[in-house]
Design a protein that fits this description.
The chain has 3 helices and 4 strands; from the N terminus they run ββββααα. It has helices spanning about 30-45, 60-100, 105-115; strands at about 1-5, 10, 15-20, 20-25. The longest helix is centred in the middle third of the chain and has 37 residues, at about 60-100. It is α+β, with helices and mostly antiparallel strands and about 120 residues long. The chain has a domain at about 60-115. A 4-stranded antiparallel sheet has the order 1-2-3-4, with no helix packed on it.
Length: about 120
Amino acid sequence: MSIDKATGISQSPEGFNRAGNINVERPKGDQALKRIGGVKEAHDTHKGKGKLSGADKVEISPEAKKLQETLSNLKSELNKVADVRERKVEDAKARMESGYYDREETIKKVANSIKNSGLL
């Protein structure tokens, strides 16, 4: 006999399912059909109760609408900031290529800025 450790149910050689010390026989023939039929009847009975009518609707609260508006505004502002950063990066790349940061006065200016920033 093998034991399924995940569920604790094993299949015996006789065809019974075991749950602990209890043998549970599988339904056969008409008995199995009756069980399936009972499930189908219960499903069909319940099925009609959940139908949607044309009158169903969803209402969004004023708070949710305000949050959506705020989120849209923040996204819009964030997109503007991203463009400014891209421009600054492009300007810095152009200055590096032109040799701006290799000049003596630029080196001193950058060094003084770092020194006065309090980061060191």
